């Protein structure tokens, strides 16, 4: 098979296309023909050496959609989707013609999603659900402020929050595009025109109370404003750090507000655990309640460095590889 490959960390130019032996199914492992695999910012960071869990040499790629070609008889020919914090890091990933995963990781693709669409949903929705629902325990009628609402994770959080019956305040440099699935779920939008008055505007939009949950999908440059936006005894979720990984905040204000600061790292979920979560999410995709971001461009493996560069440059919409 042909696969993307890197044996040292660096810019996307370190990626090469290799010919490797096809993976073989075992009693507990299936082989998937990858029809589509998205490129996430974390894939770019992975190639750059940002994750200590990565073992070289490696085939990168977390998200995928494809068809089972070898494994248990009842799975042969099944259209599946998946993601994981181990594939592409400690085991070979999805930026290849074939991908081997544990049988327990197999999840049938929602029929309403194309392979391209299914390949773009994994990291975004797993991270969003893990943070908003499993960790922060967002409840019906609560208010959530989402920093980075126009991004992939932020947009997924908005859809999940709406399905939960929560009120959504979006925060970002610009509102979600009208073709973004999250746009119709944002009840109010606060622009990041510098962070000094962002918290005041969020509090004004919540009757002075602040948001029950603040999901900071940006981090670093937004952390102070996000913390200042939390309602008394509210929760803040942090998943990223942009600009600086070190922040300072008023500890007295923090404990007097009884804020709970929660870190979430989706790379801790392996492909099996992430598959179980995708199974929970499947009915929402089947019903049309959840939709991934639009696909902006598709690339073949030979043009993968260009695809990675497009993601690093912040291209609006999703970038998908067709191995």
From TrEMBL:
One of its GO terms (molecular function) is oxidoreductase activity. The keyword NADP applies. Keywords: NADP. It holds the Pfam family ADH_zinc_N. Residues 10-321 form the Enoyl reductase (ER) domain. InterPro entries: ADH-like_C, ADH-like_N, ER, GroES-like_sf, NAD(P)-bd_dom_sf, Zinc-ADH_QOR/CCCR. This is Zinc-binding alcohol dehydrogenase family protein. It comes from Mycolicibacterium hodleri.
